Amino acid sequence: MKAKAFQPIYTSITALTKATVSLKAKNVQYDELAWVDGRTAQVIKVDGDQVSLQVFSGTEGLGTNAEVIFSGAAPTLNLSPLLAGRYFNAFGQPIDHKDEVKGKKQALKGSTVNPVRRQLPSELLATGIAGIDLNNTLVTGQKIPFFADPDQPYNQVLAEVAMRAETDRIILGGMGISHDDFLMFKNSFAESGASDKIISYINTSEDPPLERLLIPDQVCTTAEYFAYEKNEKVLVLLTDMTLYADALAIVSNKMDQIPSKDSMPGSLYSDLARIYEKAVQFPEGGSITIIAVTTLNDGDITHAIPDNTGYITEGQLYLKRDPDTGLTVIDPFRSLSRLKQNVIGVKTREDHPQVMNTMVRLYADAAEARSKKENGFDLNEYDQRCLDFAKDYARDLLDVEINIGIDEMLDRGWHLMSKYFKPFELGLKQQLIDNYWPN
Amino acid sequence: MTKGKIKGITSNLLQIEVDGPVAQNEICYVQQDQKELMAEVIKINGNIAYAQLFEAGTGLQFGNEVRFSGELLEVWLGPGILSRNYDGLQNDLEAMPGTFIQSGEQSPALDLKAQYHFKPLATVGKKYRAGDFLGEVMEQHLSHKIMVPFKLKGELELIRINEEGDYAVADEMAQLKDEEGNIHSVLMYQKWPVKWPIKAYQDKLRPGEIFQTGLRVIDSLNPMAIGGTAYIPGAFGTGKTVLQQAIAKNNQADVVILVACGERANEVVEIFHSFPNLEDIRTGRKLKEKTTIVCNTSNMPVAAREASVYVGMTMAEYYRSMGHKVLLLADSTSRWAQALREMSNRMEELPGTDAFPVELPAVIANFYSRAGIVELNNGEFGSVTFLGTVSPAGGNFKEPVTESTAKVARCFYALSQKRADAKRYPAIDPLQSYSRYLDYPEFQKFSAETLESTWVEKVQRAKEILSKGIEARDQISILGDDSVPIDYHEDFWKSELIDFAFIQQDSFDDIDMNSSLERQSFVLNRVLEVSDRAIEFADFNEVSRFYKQLINLFKQMNYSEFQSEAFQGFNRQLDEQFEKTLAHES
Lengths: 439, 586
Known about the structure:
Oligomer: heterodimer
Largest interface: A-B, 58 and 57 residues
Number of strands of chain B: 27
C-alpha cells in the first residue's frame, strides 16, 4: 500500500463520518481501492471532483490531514492453488503467520454466469446427516441457509456438515463470528486431516464490522476460481449472513439513504442475491454449493434479513432440540430443500421419497400425540406407538452426530416402521412393501 | 448527436454533463476502455442528465465520455423471437459466447440473415394503416404477420411489395407512401420503444371468454379471461413459481412469453431444461416452439429488471397485433418494484410507503392495463393475458406492491400454506381467491353459450358448499365428533368431496394434470348432483365412510381418459354406491 512514483497523495479531507471520508481528488474510479493513513478504503461516490470513501476499519482517530492514496483499480484478489489450507482476513491478507500468496490478479466483483450456460443442479451432496440427506437432500450448485437462533450450535453443525460433505474444496467465510467459534472451526479442520483443502476468510467480532462486507466477495471469487478454472466441487460456508446484512445497514445509514423494512437498505434483496446466486453447477463439472447461516431474532422469519434470504435461497434448514431425547436435530417439519426432487428416488433408491414422507408424517403424529398428552387427554394405542417410534427415529436417524449413508438411513427407516406399525397403517406403495418390508 | 461527460457516480446512478438536447428515457452509452455500457436517462436538470446504468459502475470515472443515441429503449420485433432466451434488454443469451456475461456485452435480438418464406397479403395501390398485414411468414408453424410499421402515421399507399419467396429478416419487403409523399421502406422486422403500448388496433374490448389453464380451481371456480389480468401473491415457499410454470405448460395460448424478473437462476435453468422436451397440449408440438423467455435473474443488473417486464410486454403486444392469443407471465413484479425503489432512493426522492417511490401504484396500474383483448383493424381479435406474481415482504399482503396490484388485477389466486402443508395441490385457496370476470355480463353470456345457462350459479353453489364445510369443520373440531348434529358431518364431507374430486389435481398424472372445460363441467355437475341427494346416515362414521368411497371413485375418474370405458365404469359405480347405501337403509 505504498504510493507508486508520481502517484498523488491527497492530504486534505473535507468531511468525515464514522464510516466515510470525503475529499477532492482527480481521475478516481468508482469502486476503486484506496488507503487512508494506511487503512483500507473504497470509493463509494463520485460527485464532480468530490470523492467519498468508505473506510472499512472505521474513521476513529483519522485527521483531516490524513494521507489518502488511490490504488488505481477496484479491489482484487490473488488466485492460486496455493491458497489451499490458508487463513486470511477480509482484505485477503494472511492471518496464519505465513507469506502472502502470489497468483493471478482477479477483480473481486466477478461477472454473472450466463443463465443458459448453467447446468441443472442434480448431483447429490451427501453429508451423512439424515435430517439433510434423507429429509432435505442437498445437491451441488444449491444455496441454502441454516435459520438458527443465537443459542443454537449452528457453527458446530456447519463445521460438521463441511467436514463430512464429499467435496474437493471448502471455503469458509466468517463474518463477525466469535473468536471461540473461529478456533472451533480451525480445530475441527485440523482434526479432520483435510485442512489442506480448506481456505478461510475470517472476520471475527473483534474486527471492525464494515470489513466483513468484503468477506463474501473474497470467498465467492476464490470459489469461482476453483469451481470454474479447476473444475472442482466447491462448498462455500458463510456465517453469519445476518451480521453481514447489519454491516450493509450501517453503510447505507451513513450514506443518508432512506431505510426500508427493519432499517435495512432497500437494496438488501439484490445485495444478498448477488452473493447467493454465485452458487452454480458448471457444465464442465465444477460447482459452487453455498451453505450459510442466518441467525434469527427470537425465531422471527418475517424480519427483512431471513425473509429476503428465503426468497433467494433454495430452501432453508432449521435446527431444533428433539423434545423426547434432547438431541439436536434438523427440524423435519419446517426445513426444506427445494432441489431435493432433482435427486431423491432418481439418484437415490426408489423408496426414498415415500420412506421420507411417511416417517415425517409419523413424527408429526407423534407431535400431535404429545400435545394431546400435555392437554390431559388419554392416548390411544396408536398414539403410544407413534411416540415410541419418534424416540427411536430421533435417536437412530435424526441425531446430527450420526454419520451413515443414505441406503443405511432407508434401511433403518424400514426397520423402525416395521417395528411399530403394520404396512396398511402407512399407505406405502405395495411394490415397495414387497421389496423392502423387513420380515 | 449529443455527447456528455460523467460528473458523478453513485452505484449505478450516473450524473452526466451534456452538450446538447437530451430526452427523458433516452438511451446513452458510456465509453469505458474498448466497451460501451448502456444507460437510460431518468431525470434531467439543467445540463445534467441523470442516467441509470444497466451494469455495475465499477471502474467508471469522472470524465468518461458518454454518447447519446437519440433513441428510447427499443425492442426488435420480427420473426425469430419465439423460442429464444433473452436477457432483460433483449440480448440473445445463446448468442453470447462465454460462460460468464462480460460487462457491456451485447448480442443481436434477431438473426437478420435468417431466411423466411414470405407471402404477400396486400395489394399495391391500396391504402393501409399502422398494424395492417402486408404479408406473412411462418415462424415455427405460427403465422407471423409482416405489418405496416407501428411508428408510421395516417393512411399509407402500398407502392411496392415483394412476390412470394424466401427473404432475409433485414430485407425490404415493401414500400409505402405516406400522405406527404414520403416513401417508407418496410423490412421484415421493426423496432418499438418498450414503454409505449402498441395501439395499432381499432378497439379494446371487455374480456369475457375463459382463458383455459387446464386447472379446475382456476378455469371453473375462479376463471381467468382471455385478455384478462391476474396475480399470485405468496410468501416464499408457497409455490408461486411452480404454479406459474404449470400454467405456462398447460394453456391454450398461441404464444407464451415468460419473464423471469429478479428471481433464482436455477428456476430458469429448469425451464431451459424441461421446455424443449415438453409437449404443448394444444398442438402436440414442443412447448419451446411457442415460448420466449426473458430472463433477468436476481444477480443480473438490477436496472434491467424494469426493462425486462416491458420488453416482455412489448413482444406480447407485437404478437397480439397479428391476431394471436398471447400469455405473458412475470415472476416476480415485486423485484421490479424493488429496482424502482433502489433507484428512487439513489436519486434522493422523497419516498412513499416502505420507501417505494410514490408513483409505484400508477406504474403498476399502467403496466397491467397494457394487457387486454383487442379488435384489430381487419376485424380479427388478438389478446394479451397477463399473470404476475408478487412476493410480499414477510408474507404480509399489506404492503405497497400487493396493494397496488390488487387494485388493477382482476383475478387473484391466493396460495395457502395450510393446503401446501396438507399436500392438497394445487395449493390455491378456492374461497379466498377470486375472479371478477365471474360478475362480467360478457363472461356470463360466454359461459351460458359454451357451457350451460346456469354455469355461474353452479360455480357459486360449489363455493357455498365449500364455505359451509369450513364452518362445519370448525364446529366439529371445537365441540368434538359426537357433540354436533350429523348435518355438520355431512356439510363437512360434501366440501371435502368438492376439494378432493374437483379442486385437487395431480400435476404429475398425464391425464389429470390438464382438464378440458367440457370435462370440468361434467365433473362439477356430477359432484353437485351427488351432494344434492339426500341420504339418512346412522352416525358420523358412516358419513365419512360413504363420502370417502365417493371421493375414491371420483379420483379414479379423474385419472381415466374422459368418457373412456373406465371413466364411465367409475361413473356408473357412483350411482351403484348410492343404491347400495339406500338399500342398506331400508
